[in-house]
Amino acid sequence: MPDLERLDENTVRVPRQGRMLTDATVFVRESIPLESDALDQLCDAASIDPEGHVLATPDIHTGYGVPIGCVWASRRYISPAAVGYDVNCGMRLLTTPLEASDVDVRPVADSIRRDIPLGEGGCNAELPRGRMAELLSRGAAAVGLLCRMNPRFAKAFRDDELAEDLAHMEDGGALAADASCVPDRAADRGRVQFGTLGGGNHFVELQRVDRVFDAATADAWGLFAGQFVIMIHSGSRGLGHEIGGHFMREAADEAQRLALPLPSRHLAYVPLESDLGRRYHEAMKCAANFAYANRQVMATLIRHDVRHLLEGDLPMPLVYDVAHNIAKIEEMDGRSYCVHRKGATRAFPPSRQVGRRRGDQRPGLRPEHGRHLPAVPRPAPHQRRGAASL
Question: Is 37 part of a structural domain of the chain?
């Protein structure tokens, strides 16, 4: 266990020690235990770039190369291991105007299970090879075209919902990317897994809003106590796994060739501006785009199932879709960094809150791609819909 210095009730500093080139910070209360192995991995991340920044969230735990819950910002390097195998594993939340107590969730769950394959394998729609480059480049915006090519998906798809959803997704559902950097094997794996959930800790969860702690913010996002909502947790499937493994192996070979000092055998890294660094980042962004599109098509199918079973054209707006395994180029204090997030999402300070929209007293949030997120009005009690008898 490295030496720790508590700064306040929520913050622990891991001062520079041993091979570390910079400090690390963990946001954690005293009551939360910390894994020694996870802290050692955090020290590994702090042993690469003296100009870097290394942070960790309260749920930090041992991962591959770096701990889950790690944020590593580097001026010089990029590391496939600091993103992980499941590129753009992320989450999205769909709301409904329904009271959870009015919904019989069993038939809803059964219907979703029939329409969205679960587990490690599974095939829902095999995409034409000629369309993969477009999907990997355009992300969620390509879902409309792809859905129209599949009769079952086309029945569920709505243009208006895709347009609304894109405004509620990190990066607008796509990162500018060069699809030619994606290995053929990775593209082939993704081609047969589009519209599938995956295994591990991925889920489609039918949820009830238990408590509201900030009424104004909840109201702005169309959330209320007792509400029936749906959360999706999934990533880039076999495509992202193949990209992660492929470039981890290449990075290990390149680091050895360049005689870069590696803090552990799992945490290989390469110069960000190198050919390999560029190719990995482009392929990683393509995997992120696949994940955005994959969650979008699953949401399309889920909405169709809920509406079919629960009577009528229910509004089911997206609150937000955000990645927690990704590397992005970001500006901090006028300097450019490659910010790796593994099991961590961006947290916006009050300075990122926007003013009120005209005629709307609810606050909004400004995502990094610059568009305002429109507030979703909370339905009045008499407008909330119960489940139809099944």
Answer: yes
Query: What's the pLDDT at 377?
Result: 38
DSSP secondary structure letters along 154-185: HHH--HHHHHHHHTTBGGGG-----GGGS-HH
- Written as one letter, the residue type at 61 is H
Whether residue 379 has pLDDT greater than 50: no
The pLDDT of residue 367: 40
Binned at pLDDT 50, 70 and 90, residue 126 comes out as confident
Q: For 8-12, 209-213, 331-335, 355-359, which range has the lowest pLDDT when averaged over its residues?
A: 355-359
Alpha-helical runs (H) found in the chain: 36-45, 105-115, 129-138, 143-148, 151-156, 159-166, 184-191, 215-220, 237-257, 275-309
Domains of the chain: total: 2
By CB atoms closer than 10 A (0-12, 13-18, 19+), residue 241 is buried
Instruction: Look up residue 262 and give its two tokens.
Output: 């590696």
- Cβ(365)–Cβ(348) below 8 Å: yes
Distance CA 139, CA 282 (A): 13
Length of the chain: 390
The per-residue pLDDT for range 134-186, each reduced to its tens digit, is 999 999 999 999 999 888 899 999 999 999 999 999 999 999 999 999 999 99
pLDDT digits (tens, 9 = 90+) for 331-367: 988 999 999 999 999 877 766 654 333 333 333 333 4
Measured in whole angstroms, the distance separating CA 109 from the mean position of its chain's CA atoms is 23
State the Cα–Cα distance between residues 221 and 361, nearest whole angstrom. Answer: 12
The torsion angles phi and psi of 24, rounded to 5 degrees, stand at: -130, 155
Q: How far apart (Å, rounded) are the C-alpha atoms in residues 55 and 24?
A: 6
Is the same domain home to 24 and 137? Answer: no
Query: Which position has the token pair 């054209």?
Result: 313
Range of the structural domain that residue 46 is part of: 5-74
